[in-house]
Design brief:
heterodimer, A: about 775 residues, alpha+beta, six-stranded antiparallel β-sheet, 10 strands, about 60% helix, B: 8 helices, about 0% strand
């Protein structure tokens, strides 16, 4: 019975979501107009709306699992040969389902926010719930009238579906979209708070403290989503890089810049009661950019490899963006007198001044990317389509990126309000020494180890601008490496000063602390500050990885079996090809795969005369799409460099093949940096726990949560980065020698890292105790 | 904060009673148990038990379905649970909307929104802690530290006074109501003198916060 009516039932659930959201919106507004007891009804209504969205997603998942090919979305994005996992990931593989998935994530955020708000921010609550309900209602309208995931095929049920795009049948693609969506959707909660604060006029600093945590959460997932997207592009697209400045990639990173600006500028409002208008603007703009990014991806307005099919969905997004912009600007203008600050920046040598400059740099980068992304469309206004490619972005963003990187290191050296000359001199001493030493060392030995300090660049433009960009591009390697040393020195100095101050203070209280204990206590009780420094450390790692592209090597060669090619310090010997299933050298797993035919090319790799093992780039011919083979990259990764290999073409008779080899230095540092960034964000977000209040489970929860987070991050960063083929020796042949760059650590690091981290957190909480006067550490006495 | 809430809830109850042309809240309070008996289908203890048992049974059913019948049935079981949850929540929402449920203690506590002055007080206390940190790590000169410390302490003192003054009448009202209740229940040992009731708590002098810590 259910099977017979599932599509109609699913559509009915979408209507129910809309009705429930509208009901909750109305009740919330009533609660906000001085009837506090209605708030309970609104809260229950919000939970029920979220439950309905979950119900809808489960129905669609059921339709995928039962191969209900009457439903158009199911028949477009799945087939009978797909595994259970990919059938589940098909939920967000296409336009319609991804909107439902988006709604689910928004519902999870809404339910979490409503639960968290219990007993907090009572005056803001009704309007927070009402705003979130409007967003849920928008997505349900979108699904009902433009992209219904339960819509049936006009011609009736098909015998089999078309299957998920092979490019999306990738490990990273399983987790990349949910992570990115989680980041995007996460910006809805701060926006809802912002609207509530503007409507109620409660524009003091408390609400912004709460909002910052939610924004930081969104920022963390935007970072994870973008890094995973880079990883997917690196392994799956086969062009040798991880970021191609594609419009959809750009759209995904735009809110990252404004969110990063916000988590810094909000501190100025907290400390100095300044920049209220700016902060409100940043929250609204970040949310607007998430919707704008979705509009770019889904409207088909700009062509991209990541775009969904073209549809009329863009019109709905345009209206919604208009609503967001109009409401936000209207509310800001209305509350402008309350938002005006009485304080001013008193000195240039102050942290707030540095943060403001940093904000402008981040906004500058965002604006540059936004305008450049839209430029092909904008240029149509004067009847001449101008395309903007990766070299344009790379040249112009080098100086902007270096400025942001430098400011990231400079800001912590300044104190709030003003910094005396003596304090500045003391703060700058060691970081400046690190900067100069790193630059000198790079010039001295960089060339001999294959990483020269300066890399010649061609002039991009004629004239002075071209010359300046050329010089900056040439100097970028040494500047970035030196700034990385500067930033690391700043972070180390901040930790050292904090530990020293804590030890002095403990000594005064006659409760002396060792350096290690002081370190853990310092981080444990100032998680926001030191978590932030760890985020900075992650960004240092990522910058080091980005600058590695200055020393990239790329070759396209034609080889016959037995021939060897040298690139960098690698010797690559072409052994031959094998087609799986069918070839006796194929593994059992490869033999059993009837979904596709796999053409592998086998290579022996030596680095500086030392055997590293075998690599196996491949071409996969999917049964559903035999004319469009996918390129499967094979990678040898190490902290120093990646050997990246791709098959071009292979003659089936002679086995003569054309291959592309890339040596990509320092790419691993991007993934490691991303991992450290996530770790830092987790530390910043970690909630306060007190043994007395929560009991022993607080320790268990803290330890388990952090261990799981650390293990997850490490697993993401260290899991095999070489693609499918590289890890599999042909069956019947002895296993190749262990690849040095396969990082044996990849097996041992997650548990070891998690255990160490868990121990660290345990130490922090174990040393947390009550003072004799009954006041917990961290609480001021007034 | 709680006291402030109590007075607001009390005002709201009065307003609702007037709107419906009902007896005064005191009379309504006396009739409350009878009304609750009519409205509630199950007693609170059973309800609390159900809140734990139903999700547990649901999860167990999911696991059993997964082990015995595979993913498809798991999804159906999960969907059935989600639908049950939605119906329950909607029912609760409509009950609250129509005034069919009593105001719970937690709910009443939750209505205690901190006032603007209280929030400003928290911000000043955070600023004090931050100032101590800045001094501890040597990022602020002694002169600036002394100047800012004096300013923040003065602000904190002023705000704490404001908070105490704002809460004074509500505190007296609640303490009087409590004393009355205790006396009626025969639990009050001795009625407190009126001056002691009205006397605000001694004002504390703001102290420097411990260094290098934040909440």
């Amino acid at each position: 019975m259910l099977w017979q009516s599932l599509p109609e039932f699913g559509t009915g659930v979408l209507y129910s979501i809309l009705i429930a959201a509208a009901y909750t919106f109305a009740v919330s507004l009533a609660a906000g107009r001085g009837r506090p007891r209605l708030l309970t009804a609104a809260r229950m209504g919000a939970y029920a709306t979220c439950g309905l969205v979950l119900f809808g997603v489960l129905l669609l998942a059921y339709a995928f699992q039962t191969h209900d090919f009457r439903i158009r979305y199911v028949s477009h994005y799945s087939d009978r040969s797909m595994s259970t996992t990919y059938l589940l990931t098909s939920l967000w593989g296409g336009q319609d389902g991804s909107l439902l998935w988006w709604s689910l994530l928004l519902s999870i955020y809404t339910a979490a926010a409503v639960a968290w708000l219990k007993g907090r921010y009572r005056e803001l609550q009704p309007f927070v719930i009402a705003t979130l309900m409007v967003i849920i209602a928008f997505f349900s309208v979108l699904m009902l009238f433009s992209a219904n995931p339960f819509e049936t095929n006009i011609a009736g049920a098909r015998p089999d579906g078309e299957g998920l795009n092979p490019l999306l049948q990738n490990y990273w693609m399983i987790i990349h979209p949910p992570a990115l969506y989680t980041g995007f959707v996460g910006c809805s909660v701060p926006f809802a708070f912002c609207v509530a604060a503007l409507v109620t006029g409660r524009l003091d600093n408390e609400w912004i403290v709460a909002t910052r945590k939610w924004m930081l959460f969104g920022f963390m997932f935007l970072s994870i989503g973008n890094v995973l997207g880079m990883r997917w592009a690196y392994e799956e697209l086969g062009w040798g890089g991880y970021w191609a400045w594609d419009p959809v990639e750009n759209a995904a990173c735009l809110p990252w810049f404004t969110a990063a600006a916000y988590v810094h500028s909000t501190m100025i409002q907290e400390r100095r009661n300044m920049l209220k208008v700016w902060n409100v603007f940043l929250i609204c703009f970040t949310f607007f950019l998430t919707i704008f990014g979705t509009f770019l991806t889904r409207s088909g307005i700009i062509s991209s490899v990541h775009s969904f099919a073209q549809s009329d969905i863009g019109t709905y997004f345009l209206y919604f963006m208009g609503l967001i912009a109009g409401t936000s600007l209207g509310l800001i203008v209305w509350r402008l007198p309350m938002l005006r600050s009485k304080s001013e920046i008193e000195a240039v040598a102050s942290r707030e001044a540095m943060f403001v400059v940093n904000n402008w740099a981040l906004l500058g980068a965002m604006t540059f990317i936004l305008v450049s992304t839209m430029f092909p469309k904008l240029s149509e206004l004067w009847h001449e389509t101008v395309t903007v490619g990766p070299p344009f972005f790379n040249r112009w963003l080098a100086p902007i990126g270096i400025t942001i990187f430098a400011l990231m290191g400079l800001a912590p050296l300044f104190g709030w309000r003003k910094t005396s000359e003596g304090a500045l001199r003391q703060a700058f001493k060691w970081p400046a020494i690190a900067f100069v030493s790193a630059a000198a060392l790079h010039f001295a030995i960089g060339g001999s180890i294959g990483y020269p300090a300066m890399v010649p660049r061609d002039p991009f433009y004629p004239g002075l601008v071209g010359l300046i960009l050329q010089k900056i591009g040439s100097l970028a390697p040494v500047v970035v490496i030196s700034l990385a040393a500067f930033n690391i020195a700043v972070i180390a100095q901040e930790f050292q000063r904090g530990v020293a101050a804590r030890m002095r203070s403990a000594l005064k209280r006659a409760e002396p602390e060792g350096a290690l204990s002081a370190f853990f206590n310092l981080v444990g009780k100032n998680r926001r500050r030191y978590g932030g420094y760890i985020v900075h450390l992650g960004i240092v790692g990522m910058f080091v990885g980005f600058v590695g592209s200055a020393w990239n090597l790329e070759r396209e060669v034609t080889l016959v079996p037995g021939q060897t090619h040298q690139i960098g310090n690698f010797d690559i010997k072409y052994l031959g090809t094998r087609m799986c299933p069918g070839n006796p050298k194929c593994s059992a797993e490869e033999q059993a795969d009837l979904n596709k035919r796999m053409l592998f090319a086998d290579f022996d790799v030596h680095e500086s005369g030392r055997g590293l093992g075998q690599i196996h780039p491949a071409k996969f011919f999917y049964a559903k799409n035999p004319d469009g083979p996918t390129t499967e990259v094979s990678l040898l990764s190490s902290l120093r460099q990646d050997l990246y290999t791709v098959i071009g073409t292979i003659d089936p008779q002679s086995k003569r093949g054309t291959f592309r080899f890339h040596v990509n230095p320092l790419v691993m540092w991007i993934w490691l940096g991303g991992m450290v960034l996530v770790l830092g964000a987790c530390i910043s977000l970690w909630p306060d726990l007190a043994f007395g209040e929560l009991g022993a489970w607080a320790y268990v929860r803290a330890g388990a949560g952090v261990a799981a987070g650390a293990a997850f991050s490490l697993w993401l960063a260290m899991s095999p980065s070489y693609a499918y083929a590289s890890m599999k020796p042909p069956s019947g042949t002895p296993p190749p020698p262990r690849i040095h760059s396969s990082l044996p650590l990849s097996r041992s690091l997650p548990p070891v890292g998690a255990a160490l981290f868990g121990l660290g957190v345990g130490a922090v909480f174990a040393t947390r105790r009550k003072r004799p006067d009954g006041v917990r550490h961290g609480e001021p006495r007034v | 904060m709680v006291l402030d809430t109590a007075s607001r809830v009390s005002e709201e109850v009065k307003a609702e009673a007037l709107e419906a042309d009902q007896p005064a809240p005191e009379v309504a309070e006396a009739r409350e148990p009878a009304r609750l008996e009519k409205v509630e289908l199950v007693n609170p203890e059973t309800l609390a038990l159900l809140r734990k048992v139903v999700p547990t049974v649901w999860l167990l059913a999911t696991v059993v379905a997964g082990l015995m019948f595979g993913v498809q049935i798991v999804l159906l079981v999960l969907a059935a649970g989600a639908l049950t949850l939605v119906i329950t929540l909607m029912w609760s929402s409509v009950q609250s909307l129509t005034g069919g449920t009593a105001l719970g203690f937690e709910e009443a506590l939750g209505m205690g929104a901190p006032s603007k002055v209280e929030e400003e007080k928290r911000a000043v206390l955070r600023a004090l802690k931050d100032l101590e940190y800045e001094r501890g790590v040597g990022k602020i000169s002694p002169e600036d530290y002394a100047e800012l410390l004096a300013k923040y302490r003065a602000d904190a003192k002023r705000l704490i006074q404001s908070v105490d003054e704002a809460l004074g009448p509500a505190r007296q009202e609640v303490e009087a109501a409590l004393a009355q209740r205790l006396a009626r229940a025969g639990l009050a040992k001795e009625a407190p003198p009126p001056e002691a009731e009205a006397k605000p708590e001694p004002e504390n002098e703001p102290q420097p916060a411990p260094p290098a810590e934040e909440s």
